[in-house]
């Protein structure tokens, strides 16, 4: 079928093509007005195992094994940050440093972690901007000071050097996911309107053009009476 045939369908069935996306757009606006903003505070930390302390100077693992074990440690810390024990410790630190009591379950839900080589990333998302920032700062300090305690390491030669390279100083409003969801809703609505128009055209057996008459009757059209009044 030619493109102009589909254009003619849209011209005849323009109501669902326009009405469905318009209705969804109104709903999206209402969602945007009634939605609660989310704030995200982020920190980045370097994680490196402390050099091995040995008495014999000639016996020492090279830096390759040091960096390799550091990456293993970062992998484990990603899971530690998402655990309830870490959330409990962060809650206690928040209460001690800021005087605010928070539910550990809420803290655990707000924490997300990831890694890239020896860099640990911690993101805190919360509906309250101040709470997001307090949790992120407390979590960063907890990792810097006590991260290796979660592995039961004892002795300075088994500790890790964890230093923030990005300390959370503010919580930014995060609306990216909501915006993507809103755009997807409108796109689906537009596609749905087009499908409704095509379906209405399919179930309608009336003839609207010479081309449709030729296809339906398998006969050539010799003439066509124009629409409107003829003077």
Give a topology summary.
Layout (H helix, E strand, L loop, with lengths): L2 H10 L1 H21 L3 E12 L13 H19 L2 H15 L5 H7 E6 L2 E8 L2 H18 L13 E7 L5 E3 L1 H28 L6 H8 L14
Helix pairs in contact: 2-7, 4-5, 4-6
How would you describe this structure to a colleague?
With 231 residues, the protein is α+β, with helices and mostly antiparallel strands. It is built from eight helices and five strands. It has helices spanning 3-12, 14-34, 63-81, 84-98, 104-110, 129-146, 176-203, 210-217, and strands at 38-49, 111-116, 119-126, 160-166, 172-174. Strands 1, 2, 3, 4 and 5 form a five-stranded antiparallel beta sheet that branches. The radius of gyration is 32 Å and the shape is elongated. The chain starts with a helix and ends in a 14-residue tail after the last helix.
From the structure above, extract its key features:
alpha+beta; 5-stranded antiparallel sheet; 231 residues; 5 strands; elongated; 8 helices; single chain
């Amino acid at each position: 079928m030619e493109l102009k045939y589909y254009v003619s369908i849209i011209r005849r069935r323009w109501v669902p093509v326009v009405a469905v996306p318009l209705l969804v757009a109104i709903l999206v606006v209402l969602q945007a007005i009634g939605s609660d903003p989310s704030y995200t505070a982020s920190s980045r930390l370097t994680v490196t195992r402390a050099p091995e302390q040995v008495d014999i100077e000639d016996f020492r693992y090279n830096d390759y094994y040091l960096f390799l074990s550091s990456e293993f440690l970062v992998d484990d810390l990603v899971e530690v940050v998402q655990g309830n024990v870490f959330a409990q410790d962060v809650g206690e630190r928040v209460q001690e440093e800021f005087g605010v009591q928070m539910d550990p379950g809420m803290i655990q839900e707000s924490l997300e972690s990831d890694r890239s080589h020896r860099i640990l990333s911690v993101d805190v998302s919360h509906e309250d901007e101040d709470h997001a920032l307090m949790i992120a700062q407390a979590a960063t300090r907890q990792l810097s000071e006590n991260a290796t305690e979660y592995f039961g390491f004892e002795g300075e030669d088994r500790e890790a050097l964890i230093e923030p390279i990005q300390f959370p100083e503010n919580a930014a409003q995060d609306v990216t996911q909501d915006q993507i969801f809103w755009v997807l809703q409108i796109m689906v609505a537009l596609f749905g309107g087009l499908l409704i128009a095509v379906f209405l055209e399919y179930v309608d057996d009336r003839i609207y053009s010479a081309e449709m008459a030729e296809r339906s009757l398998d006969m050539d059209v010799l003439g066509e009476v124009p629409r409107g009044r003829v003077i």
